[in-house]
Amino acid sequence: DGPPDTINSSSTPIEDDETIVTFGAKADMTQKVGVYSQIITFTAVTNPVPPPTVVSVDPDPTSPGETVTITGTNFYAGGASSGVLSVLIGPSSVGGGSSAAMRCTDRVVISNTELTCTVPELEPGIYPVIVKTFGGASNSDIMVEVIFVPKMQDFTTQMCIDMPVYPSLPAIPPVGSELNLMDVRDNRIYKVRKLEDNKCWIVDNFALQPTGSSMVLDSITSDIASGTYTLNASSIVNPNVPFSISGDPFQNYCLNLDTAIYTHKCGMAYPWTTAAVGTSASAGNTATNSICPKNWRLPLRADFDTLQTALSWGTGTGVGARINNSTWRGLFAGVGAPSPVNQQGARGEYLTAYIYAANSLISMNVQANSMSTGNGMNTTSTMTVRCIAR
């Protein structure tokens, strides 16, 4: 007349300090009908593996929605696979901020010493970063600063008018002549400057690309008058030279023409019809829609001509270095036909919104000792995109 035996017991650790325990029961069909009970004893093993440590967080400062790389030790918690249960950022200790810790989302454990995750929607402040594994919680003395980054899509004509001009070097730029703005479509941050042509430019090579096979662009966040456009990853070429800076393998940089060191992001290479979100490549067409953020557009030939004059680039010997080192930060990401992209660091091909002849566009071509804005590039070639404020 005893209770049934228990069989197949198991435990599964989940987030933080919670554990799910499951077990089955073997019933003796010869027992009398009744209610039986049995005491089940659990033995808890505390910290069978060493706790993790956090050594660094990059980038710092960061902003909500941005991916950070966390380096440290014991992320595998003594095993051959991830033992990370959670990554917490907070609470803030300096400079205001949220009063409670929040989980870092979309975490990916790359190795026993490295993981990535997405910064949660925290208020600006300085926060500790804590990794929890089967072995316990990490140290809490490694801090990251969370800052607010204005949205690229909120930039207006009046904001451009009010910005002071970013002067040619070596003059010291006045406060407010450079902004860091975030494209909300992928949370990428770009530098924006009002240059001596009195126009506001994104002075980084454009780099929008889907995280999967495609992404849908709409009129709310993109330079599209109405409707939507499906941006396919297969139409975009990554021209980046593999290079790690500050230990971050996910940042891509181009070769600096003068100093032969990697200093700038390459961006992506786009064929004209993709950059112009499906506009027909017929002679005389000017793209009025583009992959640029809302309130930004593809430049015209006249925009490049005015910029060339305003920044005194010239066209002959040494023009490549002058453009590369100018306040426009010309980055030579090469050109593809359409793939792969070649001549990184030696040639920049910047597309415009205008089609000169059927399947032939006007672009700005820059090499070490020559520069021209003219027609001839095929619309299937992949080139660099720069956006200018509307």
- Outline the biggest β-sheet: 5 strands, antiparallel
Give the helix proportion (percent range): under 10%
Compute the separation of the termini in Å. 85 Å
| Assembly level | single chain
The total beta strand count reads 27
Q: Shape from CA axes?
A: elongated
**Helix/strand class:** mainly beta
Mean pLDDT: 81
Question: Beta fraction of the residues?
Answer: 35-45%
Low-confidence stretches: 242-264
Radius of gyration: 27 Å
Query: What's the helix count?
Result: 4
Fold and architecture overview:
The strands form 10 sheets. Strands 5, 6, 9, 10 and 11 form a 5-stranded antiparallel sheet that branches. Strands 3-4-8-7 form a 4-stranded antiparallel sheet, with no helix packed on it. A 3-stranded antiparallel sheet has the order 12-13-14, with no helix packed on it. It has helices at residues 157-162, 272-275, 301-310, 319-324, and strands at 5-13, 19-26, 53-58, 67-73, 84-89, 102-103, 105-111, 114-118, 125-133, 136-137, 143-146, 178-183, 188-194, 200-202, 214-218, 222-223, 228-232, 254-255, 262-264, 290-293, 296-297, 335-336, 341-342, 347-357, 360-367, 370-378, 388-389. It is mainly beta and 390 residues long. It starts with a strand and ends with a strand. The radius of gyration is 27 Å and the shape is elongated.
